[in-house]
Amino acid sequence: MNNIDPLLLRRLDLNSLVVLHTLLTTRSVSQSADKLCLGQPAVSHILKHLRQQLADELLCRYGRSMVLTPLAESLLLPLGQWLQQGQQLLQVHAFDIRSIRQTVRLAMPDLLEAALLPALIIALQKEAPGLTLEVQAMAARQVEAALADGQIDCAIGYFPRLQGHACRQIILDSRFICLYHPDQLTLPAMLSASAVAQAPHIFTSYTGESAGLIDDYLRRHGQQRRILASTASLLAIPGILEQVAAVSVLPEVIGPIVQRHSPGLHWQPITDAALTIPIELLWHPRFNADPLQQFLRQLIISQAALLQQAIASFIAGPPDQHGRGRTASAGQA
Questions:
Q1: What are the CA-CA distances from residue 290 to residues 18, 284, 308 (Å)?
Q2: Average pLDDT, the chain
Q3: CA-to-CA distance for 114 and 131, rounded, in angstroms?
Q4: Three-state secondary structure of the chain
């Protein structure tokens, strides 16, 4: 129950309580002034004000010394405890991530979970063994409300329609590739917009709003793709492409994951280097200075940078014998 009277406290100069405790401890105006780095007249003025406010002398002269009144004696212990609690309340405590035992909640789509989560878990085990990572799949439109409500600590994904004031940082940029099976069709060495549009497409909602980037890109070049089928499962793509003459346009961050399940697939990067999907890290501004969230964000950023390097190495690898992308070996995937 909150029985704090803010109006009463506003009329009370809390700094005078520090002076009172020092006076009751030292029983001397001059010694109190020295401890508080104040002039003796200022301390005497505060003591006079406190005597009037409490209707008690508090300190009485007895011979050459000062003695406490009964009220002052009763105030000394609780006042000291209260000031000590206030000091501890505002004291900045050392942060030791290895001693933290807590669950952190992170929202990101399945594709990024598959690409980023294994390395993230390994890093957490090494640096913060007491942290438990709870990952949720969440639509991009729901993320801002979830951050505001405290349902999640941060989110990773593609967020083209943010409307609030969430803090955001791009942690990696992913270009797009066309996945296909060489037994079903062939693609030119350079994939222009017209070449991408000519092949039939298998679309997956697994990639969320990134599909809109591809359609906008094709429209800017006067092209439109034909979608043969749409599937909610990314893992369905390899089996379809092995039997159907079609392509699936996906962010390159997913390419190694898909090829891991179907080594026979080939990939071909889309030529336009400006066609990229920015993957962002989002968090609520109230956690800007929170040491736990600062640690988590930095860990995510560093692991995303390593993932970006691994993807660049994968894409820059040697082409296959047909000169159209390459087939991923177990080590490359």
A1: 30, 11, 27
A2: 85
A3: 20
A4: CCCCCHHHHHCCCHHHHHHHHHHHHHCCHHHHHHHHCCCHHHHHHHHHHHHHHHCCCCEEEECCEEEECHHHHHHHHHHHHHHHHHHHHCCCCCCCHHHCCEEEEEECCHHHHHHHHHHHHHHHHHHCCCEEEEEECCCHHHHHHHHHHCCCCEEEECCCCCCCCCEEEEEEEEEEEEEECCCCCCCCCCECHHHHHHCCEEEEHHHHHHHHHHHHHHHHCCCCCCEEEEECCCCHHHHHHHHCCCEEEEECCCHHHHHHHCCCCEEEEECCCCCEEEEEEEECHHHCCCHHHHHHHHHHHHHHHHHHHHHHHHHCCCCCCCCCCCECCCCCC
Q: What is the pLDDT of residues 84-127, one digit of tens each?
A: 888 877 776 678 898 889 999 999 987 788 888 999 999 999 99
Indicate the pTM of the whole model. 0.70
Neighbours of 61 (CB within 10 A): 9
Give phi and psi for 256, each to the nearest 5: -60, -35
Map out the domains of the chain with their CATH numbers: 11-88 (1.10.10.10), 99-315 (3.40.190.290)
Condensed to tens digits (0 to 9), the pLDDT of residues 176-198 reads 989 999 999 999 888 889 999 99
Site of tokens 């000062």: 66
Judge whether residue 318 has pLDDT over 60: no
| Token duo for residue 161 | 């329609």
At residue 329, does pLDDT exceed 60? Answer: no
Tell me how far apart the alpha carbons of residues 35 and 6 are, in angstroms, rounded to a whole number: 30
- Say if CB 207 and CB 237 are below 8 A apart: no
User: Could you give the angle at the alpha carbon of 222 between the alpha carbons of 254 and 236, nearest 5°?
Assistant: 25
Residues in the chain: 333
Percent pLDDT > 70 in the chain is: 89
Q: Which neighbouring-strand residues pair with 103?
A: 132
